[in-house]
Amino acid sequence: MFEMIKEHIIVVLLIFIGALVFGYLLRILMSKLQKNSYEQQARKIVDEAEKEANAKKKEARIEAKEEMHRAMAEFEKETKERKQELLVLEKRVMQKEENLDRKVDFIDKKDAEIKRKEQSINDRDVHLKEQIKKMESLMEEQKNKLQQISGLSKEEAKKILLSSLEDEVKHEAASLIRRVETETKDKSEKEAKKIISLAIQRCAADHVSETTISTVSLPNDEMKGRIIGREGRNIRALEAATGVDVIIDDTPEAVILSGFDNIRKEIARISLERLIVDGRIHPARIEEMVEKVKKEIDEQIREAGEQIAFDIGIHGLHQEEIRLLGRLKYRTSYGQNVYDHSKEVASIMGVMASELGIDVQLAKRAGLLHDIGKAVDHEVEGSHAQIGADLAKKFNEKEIVINAIAAHHGDEDPKSVIAILVQAADAISAARPGARSETLEAYIKRLEKLEEIANSFRGVEKSYAIQAGREIRVMVEPDKVDDSEAVLLARIITKKIQDEL
Asked: Which of 44, 224, 343, 362 has the most CB atoms in a 10 Å sphere around its CB?
């Protein structure tokens, strides 16, 4: 029995040992298999990583190539733009060189003309000196003859000679002045007529003058009561908001607006028309509508200023100058719209300046701004010419432009050709048919005053103001005034008219 148990125990031990050996061998085998699996997975991961790296390399190469192409395209575009800019600059430089060449030629011609005039003056001086010498010798001969014949003293003879020669010298001086004036007038008038006619032809302006409407039509007379409101609240609110007088009388289906400021009058007109259409007329609505219309008018004024500067081709104007130019659209002078008048004067200035070979842009600028003072002359004391010159100085305009504005009505002496051209262009624009309207009474008084001044001089028989007062036809007594003295008389009459009128 013990032997059997012993055998069983040995068998169990052998089985256990066999199981341990089998398990150990199995574990070794499993570890080898797992190791091979891990190695395969690692190789697979490495292969996938290499493939992914190769793909990213290809993508990076493609992106680099695309970036290089984009950079090349941008570089070519920028190079093309730079070339275009260089071509524009080169064109401008060539134009400036051409302008300079033309100016140099013009200056050379002017120098030659000045030299010719200097030579002519020198020749005249020599001629005058010779005449003076002849006169001195004649005077000496006459002195001797008078002393021999009359037995007068030297001083007495001298007085007689001087009195006899004084009239002769005056007559010769008047003849010389008349001859020189005639020659100069023939040449200058011909050239001036050519330039002015060219300017007028090239500046085809509208002859109809604009006036601000001051009457508002109503759909019916019942609307007058709504405009007045209870106890006059609506009409008082409208007058307070706009600054104009609202006149409601027996005129059928109409309301009259009265005020010195045309801009305020226009704001009142538009506001009232919109309130009538809207139907809601009460103080709060009136204030709201007037404020809205004011903003619209301010915007229209700014746009009008920008438009006139664009039409004339003037750049670099101050924003306040643009606003003041726009305000001129609502300003009239003798029935002529000042906005259109300024535009017309600037155009005429450009034509005349180009004909005379001076700075066209500067001339246009002076013509455009010459009446800018009229935009605020109802708010500031002084003449519109002086107000405009002060404004131009405030906005840092050039001295030539400031002087042209101040001198365009003779308040100051013109200091440049441009200032004189502004006077001429202003007169052309104001004097053309239909440009301005004038009351019959003022017109007749001005003509009578012109004739009165001319008739006040000795030797004048009759005088007639013609060409709407721009010319005076003077008839003289031939036994009192000869042709030479008539030249001096015309100068004196002109001076007196300038001083008094």
From this structure: 343
